[in-house]
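Team,

Forwarding the record for the chain on the shared tracking sheet. I've put the sequence and predicted structure together so nobody has to dig through attachments.
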Amino acid sequence: MSKIIDAVSIVMTFQDEIFAIQRQPFLRAFPGYWAFPGGKVDPGDESFYEVHSVTEKLDQRLFGTAVREAQEELGIDLREEIRAGRIERVDFFGLAVTPDFNPYRFATHFFRFHFIEKVTFMVDRNEARVSEWMSAAELLKRYNDGQILAVPPVIKVIEGLGKNPDVRTIVDLNFEYDSSRFVPYIESLKGIRQLMPLSHTLPPASRTNSFLIGDEGSPRIVLDPSPKDDEEYRKFKNTLNLFGVDQIMLTHHHPDHHERATVLAREYNIPIILSEDTYQRLIRLDSAYFADINLVFLKDGDIVTRWLKRDVLVHAIPGHDEGHLALAPDDMSWFIAGDLFQGVGSVVIGGEEGNMSKYFKTLEKIIVMNPKVVYPSHGIGLGGVNILETTLEHRKVRENQVLTLHNQGLSVDEILKEIYIEVPQKLWPYALQNIQKHLEKLKVDGKIT
C-alpha cells in the first residue's frame, strides 16, 4: 500500500469567477494539467494559522499549508486578505484521496476562498504556464470542449462551480469505482476514457491503457484491450458495457496490447482494425488468430471516428514496432501514442520489428506536430511534447555513450554493464536490445563499421 501524503488545493473565487492555472509542461508531476494552486502539507504549517471568524472551523495545519503555498506560488498572504476583509468566507469543499492503483497517493483537501475583490497575483512561472480568472461557466465550457486536461477531483470542482457558482461543498470529490466489478477508468480530457486493466506488461508498469473514444453517432473504438486474466477480462467487459463499443483497434502486435482482444471481438461480434503489418506478425505466430473476425486494415491518414465533432486520424509511428499506429484528432488536441514513450518505465526498441533510426524520426515528427496532450500506453496523459523531447534527448545521450564505448573497443555486454549498472539485472535483456539497435543505427549513419 502506497503512503498517502496530505495536500491542500486552493480554489479562489470572486463573484462567478474562478482562478485557475495550467501547470508548466516540464514539471514532473501532472505537466500541462489545469489545477488550482496548492501543494503538500509540510511540518510546521500550523504556524501560519490565522485566528479569525472565517477560519475558526478549519484545520489549523491545513489552513496554514494554504497560506504558505499561496505565498510561494502567488505572492499573496491569505491572512492579510482575511484581516482586510477581502475574503468573505472560506469553505471546505471536500477531500479527494488518490485511488490505490496509483503508486503516488495524496489526500488532497480542497478549500474555497471567496474574495469580495478581484486580486492580482504574482504567479510563480516555474509552476504555472497559464493563470487567469474566468467565469465558472467558461472554465466548464473549456473542459467540455476538450481544452482542459485535469485530474478527476479538479474536474468535479469545475463542474460543480460551473453549474452553481454559489456552491459551498462538492460532494463525491473522490475518484471511486467498484474494484470487484470494474477496472479503473478516468476521463482527464473530455471524451477520452482511459481504462486501466492489469496486463502482462513489462515492469515497472503493471497496466496497459485501453482508450475508449468516439462521439455518439460515430464508431466507438476501444484501443488495445489486454486484461491479463479471466477475472480482469470480466471487469473490463463490465466497464466497456457502461459506454458501449463498436470496434477494437490494435496499436501494434506486442502481447500486452492485444491479449483477449480476439476473445472480445468474437463475444461482441465487432471488427478489429489494425495495420497490415500487425496482422502479418500475429498470424505468423498463430494462423487462426483472427478466425471468424472481420478485419479492417488501417493506413496513415485514415479517419476512424469523431471526437467532440473533430475527425480522428490514424498516424503511422514506426520505430518501436514497424506496424505501430497512433490516433489524434485533426486539431492535435491529443495524441494517443501507444509505446512511442512511456509514463512508467522505458521504451524497448528490440526484435526484428524495432528500428532505432525510424524511432528517432517518429519522435521528431510528432514533436513538430506539437499535440497539446500525449497519452502513453503505460501511465497518465501528459500536457505538451516535453516528454517526447526528453525521450529523444535521452536516446541521443545513450547513443553517444554507446558510440564512445564501442570506439574504446568494449563488447556489447561490457557496454551494457557500463551504461545500465544501476538498472535491475532482470531488465538487462531489454537494455541489451536497445544497445544493439543503437549500434545498428550507428552503422547506417556511417559512424561505425
